[in-house]
């Protein structure tokens, strides 16, 4: 377990209960997780929570981010608008590991309607243990260039 990692987690109302349970277990297992919200199953916007996590990751205030919504799709789309983010939408361990090892994903997105809490916890654990292996450095460099182009106009 990589307890030294700083992790930010956010959700929308559709995944609030899902997030609460995942957060509880992760904290019991010794992880330091910064919960950015949302704070209820009634109020919150996926794009707002995605931006909070994305900004924390890109600024280096946390090492990685986890975003949860109904399907995970909205969170991934919103987070990937922030330059420097490589948010991966995953529903199983293989996808999660490959997103780290091959694409150096820094945010994991998934959906409360798509997988169970135990599946999500196993996937998150695998993702946190996986490390970038340098397989696609040229592609990642090109994505970084796209980010710079977007910021420069």
UniProtKB/TrEMBL annotation:
The keyword Nucleotide-binding does not apply. The active site is at residues 69, 102. GO terms for biological process: carbohydrate metabolic process. Keywords: Isomerase. InterPro entries: RpiB_LacA_LacB, RpiB_LacA_LacB_sf, SPI_LacAB/RpiB. GO terms for molecular function: intramolecular oxidoreductase activity, interconverting aldoses and ketoses. Gene3D superfamilies: Sugar-phosphate isomerase, RpiB/LacA/LacB. Belongs to the LacAB/RpiB family. This is RpiB/LacA/LacB family sugar-phosphate isomerase. It comes from Luoshenia tenuis.
């Amino acid at each position: 377990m990589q307890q030294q990692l700083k992790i930010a987690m956010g959700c929308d109302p559709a995944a609030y209960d899902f997030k609460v349970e995942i957060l509880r277990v992760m904290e019991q297992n010794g992880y330091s997780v910064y919960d950015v919200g949302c704070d209820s199953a009634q109020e919150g916007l996926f794009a707002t929570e995605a931006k909070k996590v994305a900004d924390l990751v890109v600024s280096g205030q946390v090492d990685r981010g986890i975003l949860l919504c109904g399907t995970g799709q909205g969170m991934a789309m919103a987070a990937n608008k922030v330059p420097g983010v490589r948010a991966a939408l995953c529903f199983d361990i293989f996808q999660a590991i490959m997103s780290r090892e091959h694409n150096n994903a820094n945010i994991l997105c998934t959906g409360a309607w798509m997988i169970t809490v135990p599946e999500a916890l196993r996937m998150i654990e695998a993702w946190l243990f996986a490390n970038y292996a340098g397989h696609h450095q040229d592609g990642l460099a090109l994505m970084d260039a796209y980010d710079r182009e977007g910021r420069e106009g």
